[in-house]
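Hi all, long-time lurker, first post. I run a small reading group and we've been trying to get comfortable going from sequence to structure in the token notation. Rather than ask abstract questions, I figured I'd post a concrete chain and ask someone more experienced to write out its structure so we can walk through it together at our next meeting. Sequence below, copied exactly:
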Amino acid sequence: MSDTHLEIERTYDLPEGGDLPDLIGVGGILQSDRQEPFELDATYWDTDRYDLVAARVTVRRRTGGPDAGWHIKRAASDTVRHEQHFPLTDDADSVPDEVLAALFTERRGRRLRPVVRITTTRTVTRLLDEDGDQIAELADDTVRAQRLDDDAPETPRTWREVEVETVGGVDEQIAHELFAALDGRFAAVGAGPAAVSSKLARGLAGAPAPRLHTAEKPDKGTAARALTKRLRKLRTALLDQQAALRDPATAAAADLRETASTALGIAAVLGSYRPAFAPTDEIDRAAAAADAFAVVTARAALAEYLVERLPRASTPAQDALVDAMTRERILASTRERRADAVRDVVAFLHSEPFLELLDALDDAVERPQPTAWALRSPKHVAQDVSAVEKPRVRDLVRDAVADEDAEVAVVEREAAALAATELAWTATLRARMAMDVLGDDAFPHALWKRIGNAAEVLTERVRSLHALEQLRVNAGIAERGGEGTFGYGVLAGDRVRLAEQSYDEAVHTLNRV
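-- Answer (accepted) --
Happy to help. Here is the structure in token form:
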């Protein structure tokens, strides 16, 4: 069992032997209560690559003080952190499974090892208002940090720092106003906000940490620069979205269409711009993982769409013909489909291909090594991408709208038509996203617009085909149970109309791509 809270604090560097400032009268502080000093002993853990530090996450086992235990801190900024506490275990040499599970993505599935031991002599002063209620806590720390890697210096690194943490529940804006007021008092005694606010970061100074060694961004005006920028944005979105999906408390409200868009965006960069990256097996596997992730999240996005739209007809008149029982049956089945789809997505998030994809994104964003192909202007790169994507999209759209083989059974024909339409749909969406990376300044505007139109038409067609499939299943179950199927027929007729309309539009689109 763990508990999580928001920590808002500011760290100040204070000279050795220096006096603390007088804080009475600042930000409502009218009293103080100085406590007796006590000792803290913490061992911090990370991967061999220092993945946690790179993700601005720390995990430690700490003894001493009122909150002994295992702690995970995720930094939102230099002053705001989300802190998760786990019970202290007797075994100091291994990380509890619950802690490892909570860090699965940040550690990229890798094992953790001790990287630094930090001992602290802490003196706490409670900062109180006129009624004796606590506003904040000041911790005056004398710190000793000993790295645990093979190249660590023999002498521990020592320093003094002061942390001021607001009480729980205080609004961030109010907390920062308090810190701003305190800055002047600390400056008067020769102190100031710490250049490095994390004890771990100071303690690891000089450590051989691969994830902390970054490369320069590609030159401005190159396609490589735009690709790196887009991947950085997509990686940030992906990490936030996967965290929401992993957490049972937030998975039900997660926006699956946003996740699908992120996944397809990554697949577009790694696929359509494959020559921009080194010709390695690692990149090939990452591109394949991105494609697979795009497929599983697209299914989830379709399931979410069906939950929202399938129980309702497109017009009020038709909607009035659908009885409440039919609507409830459809809603229950589509919700179950969404839950199954979310489980499939979460299963992929725990897979080795997903971790390899994250590693590739880390390297592409933090240590870009663009090829000569990518270091050209966006227009030149766009010409090469267009030469590949345009005929590929045209061929797949042609397959999706091809005449059906009358000699093939109806069920097989429908399955083949759906599969071909999904391939064309994914290809057009990916092509449009690939074009968006460099923009319509690089790609011909007419092509950019036509590919976008094709994506919209095929999106509607895929949704309609999946809706019809779901309605047939539900109607069959209702019929076998002796229930009426009129409502299903109304909704199916609505979807048949939309499917036929989108088919005609797809044929028209083919002639323009």
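A couple of things your group might point at:
The first strand starts at residue 3 and ends at 13.
DSSP finds 15 helices and ten strands in the chain.
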